[in-house]
Every structure is written in C-alpha cells, then in structure tokens.
From TrEMBL:
Name of protein: Cytosolic class II small heat shock protein HSP16.9IIb
Provenance organism: Phlegmariurus fordii
GO cellular component, one term: cytoplasm
Limits of the SHSP domain: 38-152
Record's subcellular location: Cytoplasm
Alphabetical UniProt keywords: Cytoplasm, Stress response
Record carries keyword Cytoplasm: yes
Top-level taxon of the source organism: Eukaryota
PANTHER family: HEAT-SHOCK PROTEIN 20 FAMILY MEMBER
InterPro entries: A-crystallin/Hsp20_dom, HSP20-like_chaperone, Small_HSP
Family according to the record: Belongs to the small heat shock protein (HSP20) family.
GO biological process: response to stress
Pfam families registered for this protein in UniProt: HSP20
Length: 152
C-alpha cells in the first residue's frame, strides 16, 4: 500500500526518489539528494554545547579520526561549521573480510549560529583522544559605569 497514493504527484515522486537510492545514482547530485545527504550527515554527529562564564564550548566525539580528518570553519562571521569524513579501510589493504560492519563511515557536518556575544576572532579547536573541543570566547560585556552629573 502506498501511503502517498492520494497526494500530489510531486510528493509521490519525491518520496519514491528518496527511498530508492540505487535507482537514482544518475541524479545523486541533485539539490534534493544533496539536501537529504546533508540532513543525514548532520543527524549522525552528536555535539554537546556548554556555556561557561567566558566562553561557549562545543564537544564532539570523533573516535578514530585524526585532526586532519576534521575541518572547523567560520562562515558569514557567525556560523560555526564542523565537517569531516570517516573512511572505511581501503579494501586493497584489508586483511580478511568483515562479518559485521557497524561503525559508521561517511561525511559528517554540524552548523551552529553563534550568539551576538561570541568573539569569533578567538576561536580555538583541539582534537585529543578522539574528542573535538571547540572553544568560542565571549566578548566581555561593557563595564558598568556611573557618571555623576552636576545640577546647577
């Protein structure tokens, strides 16, 4: 039974397209396909975001990845973009065969719009023991200043 049989033909076509990837290899780079790929990449990367008094900290598990496999960028002055790719072993170098393959492979991506008080020129990132930590310092709030005005 097709759940979309009574719907708009465009919706039905889109549904079939997204659920039959092997039939759509020729259209692998269409906008709809790349959107679906980006959504999966974003959903597969869990990131904790912590606010400290003087910074925002983004923490992501990156098991088995080197810092060269991960890219941290700032887009449009306020969007933190974390991207990378987990690759499977090269089959030519593989000894034996996998009986079960559960570790994920493929591209990953997360984007975060930074708040107005983020100091983007001080962003630092480190990848240690399979954990990526990106620290975004906060702009110091202006000091409270009181000026006495003389009354004449």
């Amino acid at each position: 039974m097709d759940l979309f049989s009574d719907r708009d033909p465009l919706i039905t076509t889109l549904y079939q397209f997204l659920n039959n990837p092997e039939e759509n290899e020729k259209g692998a780079n269409t906008p709809v396909r790349s959107y679906a790929r980006d959504r999966r990449a974003m959903a597969s990367t869990a990131v904790d975001v912590k606010e400290l008094p003087n910074a925002y900290v983004f923490i992501a598990d990156m098991p088995g990845l080197k810092s060269s496999d991960v890219k941290v960028q700032l887009e449009n002055d306020n969007v933190l973009n974390i991207t990378g790719e987990r690759k499977l072993e090269d089959e030519d170098k593989l000894e034996g065969k996998y009986l079960r393959l559960e570790r994920g492979a493929g591209k990953f991506m997360r984007k975060f719009t930074l708040p107005a008080n983020a100091k983007t020129d001080g962003i630092a990132a480190k990848c240690q023991d399979g954990v990526l930590t990106v620290t975004v310092p906060k702009v110091r709030p202006p000091e409270h200043k009181t000026v006495n005005i003389s009354i004449s």
